[in-house]
Amino acid sequence: MIKFLPLGGACEIGANSYYLNISGVGIILDCGMHPQKIGISSLPNLELIKNLNVDYVLISHAHQDHLGALPYLVQKHPYIKIISTPQTRALAELTLHNSVTILKQQVTEEPNFKVYDHEEIDLLIRSIEYKSYNEAVYLSGYNQKTKPTVSASFYDAGHILGSAGILLEYNSKKIFYTGDINLNNQELLPGAILPNTKVDVLIMETTYGDTDSSTILSWKEESLRFAASINKIMNAGGSILIPVFSLGKMQEILALIWNLMKTGKLTEADIYTGGIANKISNVYDYNRYVVNRIDPDFEISSIPQKDLYEVDQPEKFFKNPSIVLAPSGMMIEGTASFNLARRWLKQSNSAIFTVGYMEEKTPGFVFSNSKKGDKIKLNEITDIEEVKCTIESFRFSSHSKREELVKIVERLKPEIVILVHGSLNAIDWIGNAVLKKFKGTKVFAATSGKEIIIN
């Protein structure tokens, strides 16, 4: 018998974590934090598994909403085995250490929530076992008299460096978890590689399930629109602020901007980056020959960059036209992109360009849905501010479009589809499309704490 229990990441994007019990072997798929919540409320509900077999946690990729809660899982289950790709392990070392500082700033008074320290992260990272794509690892439970063996394999998910879909096989059953999956080429990374087999159960993300795909241009078409908009601002003497996630989006957009400049499609200008993103870029460069890359000879470190954190007065960004890539992608309060955006709002000849998905409850959503002349309030503390700069949104997606998610179902031919990692509307659209196209397929919308039995 196989049991599936969502601990988080059901009907939402954040705190992604899913428990599977496969004939007594306890396997957790991802263990992330919710980026818009703080303290205990940001974690998956680990109380749901306190009395269950917990043997392994398999990490699909290194974004915080998929691995940020890993230290708390290890605190509660110190003997759990952690497995990821080598690249996810390397990136986790950077992102988890970085999160220590952020959490200490965010969580000041919550007695039941202890922020982990750097020493704990060092121990955790050393304990991670890593497997390359398509290299099977065999999982056996600790608390069983007979030990059934489950095999697990990682498949390139095309989302960020090291990202993986996870194929689990036990007896004749095959379960595939997509993680965050992207079937299309980006600037650096090519699209995902799916298992060449039919599966019985598909656990699938639905991030873009409620997004009309006609609003999402191809990467090449969007690149040309992006370049034209940047040129327009810089030719008028303005500078562009681009909020990006330090992991994944920073590297892809930086490479895109540089390639546009090299091919004469974009006016050359100073590019500002900084912080942990530069260390992450080094991991991308180091692994360029051992993962799928569109151009493995290209090094991100070869791009001339200035450190945005060395600029002591934000007004300096406006003295000459420049492009500033600043974390965070959703412009969370207190981050570089949020603080700089408040300066950019006052500059009539400059612009803020967003390049990815925005959660509705984030400042980034407010910015990306505003235009010049609007009056906006970013939170309860800030005053109402007039938007004097240009604001434009672009879609450089690292997730599959909704029709492509349906094609994954078509390719893998599952009997059961479990939908996770998306809004209710996204899950509804994907669920209805699958039921309409694949008669006889069972579709479940995951609900946190609600178990699904798979025979």
**Main β sheet profile:** 7 strands, mixed
Oligomerization status of the protein chains: single chain
Tell me the number of strands.
22
CATH superfamily of the largest domain: Ribonuclease Z/Hydroxyacylglutathione hydrolase-like
CATH class of the largest domain: Alpha Beta
CATH architecture of the largest domain: 4-Layer Sandwich
Q: Walk across the major sheet and give the strand order.
A: 6-5-4-3-2-1-22
What proportion of the residues form beta strands (DSSP E)? Answer: 15-25%
Poorly predicted runs of 5 or more residues: none
How far is it from the N-terminal to the C-terminal residue, by CA? 5 Å
Radius of gyration from the alpha-carbon trace, in angstroms = 22 Å
Helix run count:
11
Structural class by sheet pairing and helices: alpha/beta
What does this structure look like?
- The chain has 455 residues and is of the alpha/beta class.
- The chain folds into two domains: 2-211 and 398-454, Ribonuclease Z/Hydroxyacylglutathione hydrolase-like (Metallo-beta-lactamase, Chain A), CATH 3.60.15.10; 217-393, Rossmann fold (3-Layer(aba) Sandwich), CATH 3.40.50.10890.
- 27% of the residues lie in helices and 21% in strands.
- The protein is built from eleven helices and 22 strands.
- It has helices spanning 64-67, 70-76, 86-106, 118-127, 219-235, 249-262, 276-286, 336-344, 363-368, 402-412, 424-437; strands spanning 2-8, 17-22, 25-29, 56-58, 81-84, 129-130, 137-140, 149-156, 164-170, 173-177, 201-205, 240-243, 270-273, 306-307, 322-326, 351-354, 375-376, 385-386, 390-393, 416-420, 442-445, 452-454.
- Strands 6-5-4-3-2-1-22 form a seven-stranded mixed β-sheet.
- β20 (416-420), α11 (424-437) and β21 (442-445) form a beta-alpha-beta unit.
- α3 (86-106) packs antiparallel against α4 (118-127).
- It is globular and about 65 Å long.
- The chain starts with a strand and ends with a strand.
- The mean pLDDT is 93.
